[in-house]
C-alpha cells in the first residue's frame, strides 16, 4: 500500500518539478509508519494508530495541493466543455428532428385537406354528371307536358304514343344502355319469321339460362316482336299486334295473345339499335311490363304507310303475327292477310312496354353462349318485300281489294 502511495505521489509531483525532487524521496520498510519525500515538498504519509489504524494520512505543502487542485479543475473544465458541446450538438439534432416532424405533420395535414377537397370535387362532379344525364334524358324524351296541359293535341300518332308512355315511371336500377348492348348469340332475327320460331327461341333461351350459374331458378318468359318494337325514349317502347276481332264479312276471327299478358313482366328482346334501324341481330333489352294504352284511337287502328315512316313497322312484319292469331277455319292465306291488313280490315292495336328491370346474369348468359351459324338470306329479299308492301298498300288505298280480300280474276279476252 505504501509503495502504491509513493508511486502516486511521484506521479503527482512529476507534474511540478519545482515542488518535489525525486532524489530526496525516502521510504521506511513495509512495516513503517511514514514516507519522507524530501524537504522541498514536505510530503509525509503515515499510517493511523489506534482507532485510525486502517487510515492513511498524507500531508503535502499548500502549493502542491493548490497545483493539484488546479489541474483537476482544468481537467474537469475540459470535460465540462466537451459535455456542453455534445449537449449542444444533441439539442441541435433534436431541433432538426422537431423541424422535420413538423414538416411531416404539416404534409399529413395538407394531404388530409387535399383528400377532403378531392372528395368534395368528386361529389360535385357526380352531381353534375347526374344532372347532365337527366338533362340528356329529358332532351331525348322531348317532354310534351306543356302540350297536354294546354289541351293541344299531339301532332301525330307517334307523339300521342310518346305522350302516353313518358307518363310511366322510369327504372332507376342497373341497366345497360341500348347503344351498348351485345347481341344474343343463340338466334338471329331472320330465323324468327319461320313456323315454330317461338318454340325454338324459348328452348335456346332457357338452355342458355340453364347453363349459367343462376340457371336453376326456373324458366324465363320472354317477349319478342320481330321488326315491331319502337322506343319512344331510352327505356319505354311500343309494339303493334292484331287485336282480338271477328269479321263475318271477310270470314276470319283473330285472338290476340297479348290480351292475357297485360300487367305481366317478361324479358324483352329487340332487334333495333338506337337509330331505330332494323338489325339482323337480336338483343336483350331488360325486363318489361306489358301496358294497356287506354285510348280508343290506339286500341283499334288500321295499317297505313305512316306506320313505316313513323315507327319503322313494315307490313310484311305484321303478317306472321296475324297468321298465328287466326282461330277460324278455313285460315286466311298470307296474300289475303297482306291485303286485309293494308286495307285496314284487320284492326291493330298499340301496346306499351315499360322497363322495370334488367337481369345482368341473363344478359351475360345469352351473350356468351356458343354463337350459331345462320344461313344468309336471299339478296334484296327485304327490299323486295318492302316493294310488295308499298304496292299492296297503294292498291288497298284505291279500293281494289275484293270483299273477301282475294284478288279479282281478270276476264280473259277472246282471241
From TrEMBL:
Residues 13-52, 138-159, 373-415 are annotated as: Disordered. Signal peptide: none annotated. Residues 23-33, 142-153 have a biased composition (Polar residues). Residues 405-415 have a biased composition (Basic residues). This is Uncharacterized protein. It comes from Moniliophthora roreri (strain MCA 2997). Residues 379-392 have a biased composition (Basic and acidic residues). Residues 393-404 have a biased composition (Low complexity).
